[in-house]
Amino acid sequence: xxxxxxxxxxxxxxxxxxxxxxxxxxxxxxxxxxxxxxxxxxxxxxxxxxxxxxxxxxxxxxxxxxxxxxxxxxxxxxxxxxxxxxxxxxxxxxxxxxxxxxxxxxxxxxxxxxxxxxxxxxxxxxxxxx
Length: 130
Known about the structure:
Layout: E1 6-10, H1 13-24, E2 30-35, E3 38-42, E4 53-57, E5 66-70, H2 74-86, E6 90-97, E7 106-111, E8 117-122
Parallel strand pairs: 1-4, 5-8
Antiparallel strand pairs: 2-3, 3-4, 6-7, 7-8
Helix pairs in contact: 1-2
């Protein structure tokens, strides 16, 4: 792991919290802490209930970023894409292989409420995913 945690600026914290809770639920990511100006989310894989992603009130329209979330299998990528669209995201690339990256790169992309490009990706071939 290269980062301990990442901070993501958002214009509307409550809207972002609702969106990320719904969109990231299929990946096992959930809210573990909430403050008036920040919300901490975690998957609990590395350190139980330690925040890996912070949403923080920006006070302005943030510059869009790209974040790729690890998925355990292709089904999680598919579920992320469906959940994010249902939560209000805009499609930026449906689930599928992206062989330009490598032979087993399976990903889906959406644009979230603040313009951030969000991706769920699995690097395993389909026959090895649980």
